[in-house]
Amino acid sequence: MIAPAISVCIPIGAWDSALPRTVDSLLAQDAPFEVLVMDASGDERVATEIARLGDHVVFWNKGRDGGQCKAIHTAFRKSRGAILTWLNADDALRPHAMRTALETIGAGSCDIVYGNAEMVRSDGSFLRAHEGVKPNIDIIYRDCVISQPSAFFSRAAYEAIGELNTKLDFTFDWDLWIRFYRAGYRFQYVPQVLSDVTEAPGTKTLQLNPRRYLEMFYLVQKNTNLKYALLSITGAIHWRASKIARRR
């Protein structure tokens, strides 16, 4: 059996009304891909939607999986693609996103490709451009300039740096980008919108969870200094407060 070019993990903790849009976005891609589903929801609506992906689904775990990071880690070990990514059950890829990743990484000029993203509501309607995405990867130690659903990376690089850090719950994607950068792997920013990222009250990045801020603090401090760690935390809290204010 010929391995697909791209492996996509979908970690699902609970039913999300945006999942049909996620599935539709995968079915609209024009590159060969496989899907690995880590479904801890126990919800038949999830099963109905995932079934629409048909033969693209090569692995489907139903039941407890240790949480988002461990679920993705497990799925990647069972995947076959030369390029990896994951897509949350409330996010969606833009048309040709996989083709862009395949052509960019396949050209041999980079190991990680990332692009722009747009923030959307639960119904998919536009909110704004993702303001955190920046083309300057050299500030990755103190600023997560990558929107994860708009990022793809080579399996070779992923395995070489030791895979995901499953001790992290909130910053494991940022930690991954930092380890790629420190190891000298090549990033390439493309100025296209590659994904839609849902911003809703239950969104993980909007949670006021002390562990999230602790992870951010230690990640930045470890790679820069106390000053940037404190700036990172205060910036994140200010960003969260602004989102609360916008909904009032």
Task: Summarize the structure in words.
The chain has 8 helices and 9 strands. The chain has 248 residues and is an alpha/beta fold. It folds into 2 domains: 6-207, Spore Coat Polysaccharide Biosynthesis Protein SpsA, Chain A (Alpha-Beta Complex); 208-248. Strands 1, 2, 3, 4, 5, 6, 7, 8 and 9 form a 9-stranded mixed β-sheet that branches. Helix 7 runs antiparallel to helix 8 (226-247). The N and C termini lie far apart (54 Å). The mean pLDDT is 92.
Write the SSE topology.
Blueprint: E1 6-12, H1 19-27, E2 33-39, H2 44-51, E3 57-62, H3 68-78, E4 83-86, E5 92-93, H4 97-106, E6 112-120, E7 126-129, E8 151-154, H5 155-160, H6 172-182, E9 187-198, H7 210-223, H8 226-247
Parallel strand pairs: 1-2, 1-4, 2-3, 6-9
Antiparallel strand pairs: 4-8, 5-9, 6-7, 6-8
